[in-house]
Transporter
Amino acid sequence: MKISARNVLKGTIVEITKGATTSHVRLDIGGSIVTASITNEAVDDLGLAVGGAAAAVIKASDVMIAVE
């Protein structure tokens, strides 16, 4: 599969926390953790499991962080 996003970070799934409709999937990417919020249906459809390989695909127009 080819995609237009250029920020693809390959890693290993270290945790999946399912909520009522949304799951938080945590990937270990070279010692850093990236968390994605996706639907429970997507987790099931992709066959995601702890210890499995996955990639975080980042396509965002902006990222904001603020502190006082």
